[in-house]
Write a structure and sequence with these properties.
Shape: elongated
Distance between the termini: 75 Å
CATH topology of the domain at 54-197: Tetracycline Repressor, domain 2
CATH superfamily of the domain at 54-197: Tetracycline Repressor, domain 2
Structural class: mainly alpha
Largest sheet: none
Length: about 220
């Protein structure tokens, strides 16, 4: 009988090879030929699934987003909100080999996206999906204030994403500063979302963790 080929799995394997090349050698080194060599295929076999370099890059960018979403889904839903948010941010940071390769590839994608409308559109959609999901989660855990709590949660989501992006960049070029940067993460999250109160202690303010205007 003819061998059955799982098209989706083949695309994922090729996409993984793109990510490895992008993280190790940069996007300039990504081509049908180099990806074919890295994935153990002929150039013709790669082109059965991706006709051009841009198609490979677009798929690889989406693949990173899928991986992050899968890791986020494994975060314990029973954690207190502050601890759960920390765990969610950690799923995006380059604190192990796999996430380091993804972060390096994402940095390369972001640089190219500034001059490539197609890749830029994919990056914006991934960012918007993460923003919307995080904003919904923040709303579900009681955060958000003012006349439009949903909009406030999205603003808080933007702050968390900016924090994650900045830490990811620094961890890429200064991995030896990991402990210092993770402490910075904790301090920033304490300012944005205070930890759960200790029984018997005065309750923390919700929303962004800042005191009311009249108290500042």
């Amino acid at each position: 009988m003819p061998k059955t080929v799982d098209r989706d799995e083949q695309r994922r394997q090729i996409g993984a090879a793109v990510l490895r090349l992008a993280s190790e050698r940069g996007l300039d080194e990504v081509s049908v030929r180099t990806v074919a060599a890295a994935s153990g295929r002929s150039p013709g076999a790669v082109q059965k699934y991706f006709r051009t370099k841009d198609e490979m890059l677009a798929f690889a960018a989406e693949l990173v987003g899928e991986r992050i979403e899968r890791r986020m889904a494994t975060v314990d839903s029973g954690l207190p909100p502050r601890e759960a948010l920390r765990a969610l941010v950690l799923t995006t940071l380059p604190v192990d080999a796999e996430r380091r390769a993804e972060a390096a590839a994402q940095l390369a994608f972001a640089t190219r996206a500034a001059h490539h409308p197609g890749l830029g559109a994919i990056r914006r959609q991934i960012d918007e999906d993460v923003r919307a999901a995080l904003g919904d989660w923040l709303a579900s855990t009681g955060h958000g204030s003012g006349p439009d709590a949903a909009a406030d949660c999205l603003a808080l989501a933007d702050a968390v994403i900016a924090l994650s992006d900045g830490l990811a960049l620094r961890l890429l070029y200064a991995p030896g500063d990991r402990d210092t940067l993770l402490h910075a993460l904790d301090r920033a999250l304490d300012a944005l979302i205070p930890p759960a109160p200790v029984p018997g202690a005065a309750p923390h303010l919700r929303s962004t963790g800042l005191p009311p205007a009249e108290a500042r």
